[in-house]
Amino acid sequence: MQAFILAYANSKPYSLHMTREIIPHPLNQPIRFAAVLTGDLVNSTTIGTEAADGAMAAIETVARTERNFSRGDVRFTRFRGDGWQVYAEDGSSVFRLTMLILATLRHQSHLAQTRLAAATGPVAVLPASGLASATGEVFSLSGHGLDDLTTQRLVYESRHSTGNWHRALFTYLDWQSSRWSAEQAEAVALAFRYDPPRTHSVALDLGISRQAAQSRLKGAGFEPLAEAAYAFAALKDAP
């Protein structure tokens, strides 16, 4: 557990200050392929404040770590108590970000778990900070996707031409992540915080043998997860 926390240590917390000031995208270029993850905590009325706040802090840490690895504009916000949203300007990171959030919460089983709807698409308006006044297709797809969830825990929405097979990969991620042990989830979170994932970092961060680390990753489905993440990463220059 200590190794996991240290691996995600960062310089300073991300400000959640909201503003209605609207700024253009750098160089006045439209944001055509962003990712938005919208979620709510499971059993939020019974889990207790500590478990809920801990889960929110864990999700925010994933977003902050992604931003600190110089992967563009990544934001987190909490709303309605048990609701949250993550925005990433690089839409190709959507699968890996979703996987990281699921793995981070699964590893810390005392925390609240989450449902979430991931989406990719264009952004119309993005505020200077926060997400309170953000609008666009990707925000609508993600928000409606969460509203439409019934028995599922995870869904992916996109109007991109490859959306159907992307949804299939998210269905696989939902199935695979529900079977992770705490140790397997920790290994996934440590490996996939890098892009591409680094399997050798798991053994170093946890202070275990490479064979033990590889065993955890294999049991977690590392190979198909890495292939799926790579397939999404290939959309970086999607039109």
Mean pLDDT, rounded to whole units?
87
Strand runs, count: 5
Report the radius of gyration as a whole number of Å. 17 Å
Number of helices: 9
Largest sheet: 5 strands, mixed
Percent in strands: 15-25%
The ordered H/E elements are HEHEEHEHEHHHHH
Strand order of the largest sheet: 2-3-1-4-5
Helix content: 40-55%
In short:
This protein has helices spanning 2-7, 49-68, 94-107, 137-147, 163-177, 182-192, 200-206, 210-219, 222-233, and strands spanning 31-41, 74-79, 83-88, 114-123, 154-157.
Q: Topology, please?
A:
Blueprint: H1 2-7, E1 31-41, H2 49-68, E2 74-79, E3 83-88, H3 94-107, E4 114-123, H4 137-147, E5 154-157, H5 163-177, H6 182-192, H7 200-206, H8 210-219, H9 222-233
Parallel strand pairs: 4-5
Antiparallel strand pairs: 1-3, 1-4, 2-3
Helix pairs in contact: 2-3, 3-6, 6-7, 6-8, 7-8
Question: What would the keywords be for this entry?
Answer:
about 240 residues, about 45% helix, globular, disordered N terminus
How is this structure best described in words?
Helix 2 packs antiparallel against helix 3 (94-107). By secondary structure, the protein is α+β, with helices and mostly antiparallel strands. The chain is built from nine helices and five strands. The protein has helices at 2-7, 49-68, 94-107, 137-147, 163-177, 182-192, 200-206, 210-219, 222-233, and strands spanning 31-41, 74-79, 83-88, 114-123, 154-157. The chain starts with a helix and ends in a 6-residue tail after the last helix. Strands 2-3-1-4-5 form a five-stranded mixed sheet, sandwiched between helices.
